[in-house]
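User: quick one - fold this with nicotinamide-adenine-dinucleotide bound?
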Amino acid sequence: MPYFPAFLNIENKEVVVIGGGKVAERKIEKLLLFKPRIKVIAPKITPLIESLEKEGKLSIVRRRFILKDIERAFLVIVAVNNIKLQKRVYMYCKKRNILCNAVDSPDFCTFIFPALVLRGDVVIGISTSGKVPALSRSLREYVQRVLPEDLEKIEEKLENIRSSLPKGKKRQELMVKLSKRFLNL
Ligand SMILES: C[C@@]1(CC(=O)O)C2=NC(=C\c3[nH]c(c(CCC(=O)O)c3CC(=O)O)Cc3[nH]c(c(CC(=O)O)c3CCC(=O)O)/C=C3\N/C(=C\2)[C@@H](CCC(=O)O)[C@]3(C)CC(=O)O)/[C@H]1CCC(=O)O
Ligand SMILES: NC(=O)c1ccc[n+]([C@@H]2O[C@H](COP(=O)([O-])OP(=O)(O)OC[C@H]3O[C@@H](n4cnc5c(N)ncnc54)[C@H](O)[C@@H]3O)[C@@H](O)[C@H]2O)c1
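Assistant: Sure. Structure tokens for the protein plus nicotinamide-adenine-dinucleotide:
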């Protein structure tokens, strides 16, 4: 069954990452692009996550996880090689409507990470609904190859035109026409 893609605004929202290893690192690098407040809970932390803390980009709690760590979270990532813990966190989050991603078990995720292409405010997220992550990665590389180099500029130009015009049918038609023209369609 394919998953519904939704784009969330997580600016300033509390994100808790349980685990501080290689996979946590990859998820954190991605999340930071969207400016949430990130708290990492783990006894062992990679040098890159340590350096992000020094730069003031996240905070670290250097110990094992306890449930209290996530009681105010908007979103939780369990990047620990421990299925029991992943299940426990998922069950807790599910009861409280906290978004949960368990890196080892799609069954214990309420959302999954897409392969991501970001150009300014243009976001392209690719997923196989949890089935073949390596294919999402390859599709991301494929899409990156065919996208126009100046996509960010194109979006900015169109955004400026759009925001300078009153809402309505005339603007709708113009925006559709210009978007096609900018992409040579
Ligand atoms: C897209 C991407 C985004 C990101 O990570 O940010 C992402 N995985 C990526 C790469 C990747 N992950 C894995 C490999 C090795 C090949 C392989 O094992 O197949 C590679 C390839 C590589 O590393 O090149 C291993 C792996 N991944 C998961 C499991 C558990 C399982 O399947 O049960 C295992 C087995 C672990 C083990 O065997 O121990 C689970 C998930 N990985 C997801 C996302 C979610 C589903 C995405 C979708 O719907 O497609 C989901 C469900 C949960 C989640 O993580 O959100 C990122 C590419 C980023 C990019 O390059 O752009
Ligand atoms: N979803 C994906 O894309 C993907 C890709 C590859 C691997 N994985 C899986 O991700 C998991 C993590 O991999 P990794 O390479 O980052 O592992 P790792 O061993 O490098 O890191 C594990 C981290 O968890 C911490 N930890 C352990 N027990 C903890 C506890 N009770 N509370 C808090 N922190 C705790 C450790 O201190 C460490 O920081 C593995 O199970 C792996 O199979 C997922």
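One thing worth noting: Residues 83-96 form the longest helix (14 residues).
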